[in-house]
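Hello,

Our lab assistant flagged a job as stuck in the queue for most of the afternoon. It eventually completed. Since we weren't sure the result was trustworthy after the delay, we are filing this so someone can double-check. Below is the sequence as submitted and the structure that was eventually returned. Let us know if re-running is recommended.
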Amino acid sequence: MSIATEARAGVTAAAGSNLGRRNGVAAIWQVLFALATSFAVLALAVLLITIVNDGKDWLRWDLFTQSNSRNAEDAGFQSGIIGTFWVISLTALVAIPVGIGAAIYLEDYAPRNWWSRILQTNISNLAGVPSVVYGLLGLGLFVYFLGFDRSVLAAALTMALLILPIIIIASQESIRAVPSSLREAAFALGATKWQVARSHVLPAAMPGILTGTILALSRAIGETAPVVVVGAALFLSHNPDSLLSRFTVLPVQIYQWTARPQQDFRDLAAAGIIILLVMLLLMNSVAIYFRQRFSRNRW
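-- returned structure --
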């Protein structure tokens, strides 16, 4: 009896020692994660404070009503803001329905064979391709082969290709997260596959789809390399008025002004970054509103 008691006591002591060691390791990792998060937040705060300090004195209404100029006092972002609105709006109109449709096909309609696996692998790989490669693709396909020239349409289609893999992957993950019982109940009531996807799966998956869309459009609105390769003008004093017009976008205009030696233009670029951040926050706020609205109607 005493031997059994001593054995149990030894096991308990060993378990307690092991638990204490594991808790210590977990505490160390918790501190490291907290430090990493704090460092990222601190770096972001320093960056934002620097940008606001440099650009706040140049924030004025004239920035929205004046176009590019060789004099900092007369320069504005009107052509860049309108060009950004054209490109992002058309990018969203093309990429979002195509991306969601591709995700529905791959999840609910595509056969589970080698061809589907190849498609899925390529889509995942395309999400990690550098953006300048998409710019070269857009230059060869849309500008030269299809003859769209260096226009809003060519830039928007190029940006749509850039964010399409992100939307497809996010939509697929959201569709997979929908419980299979929801589909089975709809099929049991006689619904077709399309009716199930349209009326049950998509509404349930929409919050996750909108999250992926927010991330994709946030990347697109800040990209410079693809639109420069496709042909965004570094200096443009007029606004685009059609899909085939020459254009510039806000990131390109900011890039062009940061490269100038005059300090006034660099401060103007900081003001442009503030405007771009505000546009991004407004766009994300609208998407988040719709995401929360769909979340309330989930199963």
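-- support follow-up --
The delay was a queue issue, not a problem with the job. The result is valid. DSSP finds eleven helices and no strands in the chain. The chain has two domains: 2-58, 62-296.
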